Description:
Layout: E1 9-12, H1 18-28, E2 32-37, H2 57-62, E3 66-70, H3 76-88, E4 91-93, H4 98-103, H5 108-114, E5 119-124, H6 139-145, H7 165-188, E6 193-197, H8 198-205, H9 207-216, E7 233-237, E8 242-246, H10 250-260, H11 263-267, H12 275-280, H13 282-294, H14 298-307, E9 312-314, H15 318-323, H16 325-330, E10 333-336, E11 345-348, H17 372-378, H18 383-391
Parallel strand pairs: 1-2, 1-4, 2-3, 4-5, 5-6
Antiparallel strand pairs: 7-8, 8-9, 10-11
Helix pairs in contact: 1-7, 6-8, 7-8
Amino acid sequence: MGGVLEGVRVLDFGRYIAGPYCATLLAEFGAEVIRVEKREGSEDRFVAPVGEGGEGALFLQVNRNKKCVTLDPMKPEGQEVMRRLVATADVVVANLPPQTLRAMKLDYESLKAIKPEIILTTATAFGGPGPWSDRVGFDGVGQVMSGSVYMTGTGDPPYRAAVNWVDFGTALHCAFGTLAALIERGKSGRGQIVEGALLATALSFTNATLIEQAVINVNRVPTGNLGQTAAPADIYRTRDGWVLCQVTGHPLFKRWARLMGEEEVWLNDPRFADDISRGNNGAIISERMARWCAERTTQEAVDALGQAMIPTGPVLSPQQALDQPHIRAAGFMQDIDYPGLPKPAPVTRAAVRLSETPGKIASRPPTLGEHTDLVLAELGYDEAAIAALRQRGVI
């Protein structure tokens, strides 16, 4: 494929998001990534199915640019295949609980015995040390335990986010850590463990709220879409939809007051002197902004706010997001064909661009076991040996 990570081989034993998306980011910038999957297909292949074979939208999103082999690593012959694979690899990605890693012989000590300079990138739900280190969990666990869900909505009931930001944030942290470990290995020759945790990611994203609580004991409660530390910061109804307006900092507030045509009203009142004061009196400011938006269409509102250099955006449905002119023009997504899909899938590229060595989506996600024979042949298995492994249920 080329790219800054060309020559790096990654074995992806990850499931769902944190592990697979970490490996995908590495693949997009040139690493060779081999996804190792159950013979019948791993469960994350079939989330939100969109294809004839049951492949899901999530699988298509986080597994482009990879090869796929099927393997039962719990069988002795499967262990031998895995040993040969590890011997060729630079990085093993496995977001699995510690006890599962040990059972599969994917723990760091087992891997290091095969290849001393190996890097193991792993992610767990809760991290450690701690009494919950061996427990399992998904994205929502991090959301609810970080304070984020408590502060979302109006409190009865609390709401978790519909998108898996904890999982994807953990994948980003793990990819960053893997790159740092590769740089260190290039200097010292040493491998190491790169460890992410869903709860650690969630806490890092909500940290400012936790700091505020710890230092001044503010005891905030949820206020829906209304911001609490600046204003106007809310989602407002227009004549035909909804828009978000988000003002932070006095220069932005001055521009907003000018747009309202009411600079004398808003800029000379001590209740609105700084961000936190405006946040404390946000309902007053939001009421004015709500009246302004209600007189306009969504397009008129976002155009006027945008021209005034005030952060804004329309609330879009998924279809509207696909059709939005800027999203289409910016090329954030690439249409990918996949066997059995009724139409191409719009897969997002890595959300960072390098001017000289950009990443790229070079190949579609793999079908189940698509590259098993190819990879095993590279490991020294001939056609008869591969057929025997398949007959015995190893691959």
